[in-house]
Design a protein that fits this description.
homodimer, 4-stranded antiparallel sheet, 11 strands, alpha+beta, 2 domains, D-amino Acid Aminotransferase, Chain A, domain 1, globular
Chain lengths: ~290, ~290
């Protein structure tokens, strides 16, 4: 317990600080997420509980694309000494990545559950229209790029918020580029986005599940992409566990009423197209490989 | 010209009547659609003009899924004797079907172009939320079922407007059922929805195009499904030209800004899942075939 600390590489969401609850990691593979206020924490807990045990969820989907859920634990809070707060105990999805590059992409043109209360709908809708969500079916909520040389890039919050379509394209290029120079060389595009086990292959597997699954609708959830630029496997072009695609943030997941999550699926297809375009462009302009 | 008359089998949209403009057919394969007011007519004409000549549209997509465009023609109007009104001249997509069953399915959770004026957005959004559009990614805007015996079923307008998710499922079952009895026997599900050339196969081909195309976003457009219950080919289980899947209503199509139409695509995937479920259910419960 004494080793709990805020995660170093968080790119979106609330942060732990003095007088503020935020997620913690134990450095041994676990991530502690404080239950959120306003029923959101209870809803996220209900989702993890239902999802973890659901017989219709393919184990491969659960293991590949979701953090493993280990129940809840009350932890003392720095915010209120002497008191404790319940936390979800999850796998730390960045565990083992020495210098993680991470991006949090909120999926769906619509981030409000259709039966949500009116003020919440109005607030979300305004944000969905002010960001790229309505236009693209997703928005980039956070990004951090670390390269093998140890350099790190992250944008200002204002740069993220005001992003337009070309801006999203630049973020997705920058995510697989060296940090120096113009940061858009796409040096790792083939290794991280392309190939077997790369982001594209994983997103396509996730998409195939969303074309079928009628269990949950993932409003306002994110796809978190991460990789370790230092991983020896990346340099060799084989990615293995070095490239990760995980879904996170389930405070607004609802039951599906028997229909697919067309909102998430449409956004996912849009993201796939963006990334596929980058891979295609890089493979057109790259010099020939080992021949 | 003297043979122009309102189409018999229209299931949605404006109808021609005394003092009212509406579409006309010539009975020889052409459909005349009056240009709509408020720029909508001009927008639809601009779409047909651009789309017809666009080098990036695969000819097979254009020929299979869109009515062919033959320019415009001014026609005298019954509404205002002595005056004429411009019409789009299109292929009559029901031409040659003796007793067509037709359903008009408006695709997309969101029927408003993101950059539309605010009052229009508010009006469409209210309707998208009041119907199944937001929940399902589509709504049934019209349906007419004719069976081989000549019987015809169509719902009241109020029944259509108030439809919920189970109601949509019933409409999609009824569309391929005999008109008598409870109208839900799904007698033609395998022939119309399933198989090579059936609705599912055609919708999947359309979906593959929407996963790639970044030319147009089809807000508020419909997929019109039709077949002829009298076609000998249906009885034999082979559908050929007897089952048609066409896109219609392009007054709110906009350019894509280089991204896919995730809104249309998500709705299309949702519709495919509904229809796939019906085919799967029928094939599970059907007695074995010719064995």
């Amino acid at each position: 317990m004494s080793d709990l600390r805020p995660p170093e590489h968080q790119v979106a969401g609330h942060r732990a600080a003095v007088n503020k609850l935020g997620p913690l990691v134990d450095g041994a593979g676990l991530f502690y997420k404080p239950l959120q206020a306003l029923d959101r924490g209870e809803q996220e807990l209900a989702f993890y509980t239902a999802f973890s045990a659901h017989p219709a969820v393919p184990p491969r989907i659960r293991d590949t694309f979701f953090p493993r859920f280990h129940g809840t634990r009350r932890l003392p809070t720095a915010a209120s000494p002497g008191e404790s707060h319940p936390h979800l105990v999850l796998d730390d999805i960045l565990d083992g990545l020495a210098a993680p590059s991470v991006t949090d992409i909120k999926i769906g043109a619509c981030t409000w559950p259709p039966r949500a209360p009116e003020p919440y709908v109005a607030k979300c809708l305004a944000k969905d229209r002010a960001t790229t969500s309505v236009l693209l079916g997703f928005r980039v909520s956070g990004i951090r790029v670390a390269d093998a040389g140890g350099a790190v890039w992250r944008p200002d919050r204002s740069e993220l918020k005001g992003t337009d379509i070309p801006g999203v394209r630049r973020f997705l290029r920058r995510f697989v580029s060296s940090v120096g120079g113009d940061g858009l060389d796409c040096a790792l595009a083939a290794a991280v986005y392309g190939g077997e086990g790369g982001v594209l292959a994983q997103l396509r597997e996730l998409k195939a599940w969303f074309e079928e699954q009628t269990l949950f609708h993932f409003y306002s959830a994110s796809v978190l992409l991460s990789y370790d630029a230092n991983a020896a496997s990346l340099a060799g072009g084989s990615v293995g566990r070095a490239v990760r695609v995980k879904l996170v943030d389930f405070a607004h997941v609802v039951e599906s009423e028997g229909v697919i999550d067309h909102n998430f699926l449409g956004g996912l297809c849009s993201l796939i197209k963006f990334i596929d375009d980058i891979v295609a462009e890089v493979s057109r302009t790259a010099p020939a490989g080992h021949s």
